[in-house]
Amino acid sequence: IVSVALFANEYGSTGIQDGTGQRRVDSTTTLGGSLNFSRSWNRSRLSTFYNGAASLGSSPSNSGNHYWYQDLRTEQMMDLGRWALIFRNDFLASPQAAFGGQALGGPGGLGQFSPSSVLPLGGVNPGFDVGQSILTGPSMRIANTSIGEADYSLSRRTAVTFSGSYGLLHFLSPGYIDSHQLTGQLGYDYALSPMSTLALIANYNRITYTGSSAAIEGYLLHLAYGRKITGRMAFQLAGGPEQIRFRDALAGTGSDLTWSLNSVLSYQLRRTGYSLSYAHQTTGGSGVFFGAHSHIFTASAHRTLTRFWFVDGNVGYTMNSSVAPVASAASRFERLGFVLTPFVA
Fold first, then answer.
1. Which residue among 190, 308, 310, 322 has its CA within the 20 to 30 Å range from the CA of 221?
2. What is the mean pLDDT of residues 162-178?
3. What count of other Cβ atoms lies within 10 Å of the Cβ of residue 146?
4. Partners of 167 in the β-ladder
5. Which residues, 6+ apart, have CB-to-CB distance to 54 below 8 Å?
6. CB-based burial of residue 39 (10 Å sphere; 0-12 exposed, 13-18 middle, 19+ buried)?
């Protein structure tokens, strides 16, 4: 199956500071397209999604800015009886953060606003993502995440999941912090009923930073619950304690007992869909901090107008604070954005 889509969106955001220290509201117009390819065999399926666009600054303070981005996602799934294997790679080259970047289509991350018929490969689990939730100045960066997962069915109701990932965030211009992230996860799933699933998840995460001795290690334990409330509504919630250990050149070493949570509520009608999500997690710092505590909220809606036309609306909010103590007023960043996107496919 091959499908092509063209899109345009208008993105607005608040909280941007100009050279005089005054906050302003900016808007950006983005024009782009995507290519989706999928191929199924007897026991495997290959899916590839490419998304690329150029943005044009449309507000008075942003009229001279022209950016581009490239996004490529590939996923291979294999069914081997009791075993199920998944391999995935997400590559992104962009001038701004994936969440809320003006060149990336708005809040919620690149492509997250797209209807499922246009974008079958959504975002990865937040625990495996390199995390770009702080908007920086324009600076081309490369983000790549490689993930492997193996699921083994013990019985009709129970399964064990093993997964791991490696991610990197690299800036092509000076002034930002490159990071590397290694994650391992073990999960046990139990189907309470055809509509409900309970899971216990243990996760280890280590983040290191290029050219620095700073590092973060995180250990978390999640109790997860998922339920199909109706044939159209689904709810997922995973949360629990997280132990953070950090090492910083200025703050020294330390630890912090915090909490982590990921939740999604979705509702799908024949032509219209809605979703709400909230996550609290420890991230790599988006090139600004040596680790950050991040609150990320998104709300979106999409509607199919005709066979070829779609429209999406999306709003997102993120708040980030440094894991290690920072002797600066810039120890916390907040971001609010919205986007409206028409598609033709």
1. 322
2. 91
3. 16
4. 145, 181
5. 30, 31, 32, 66, 67, 68
6. exposed
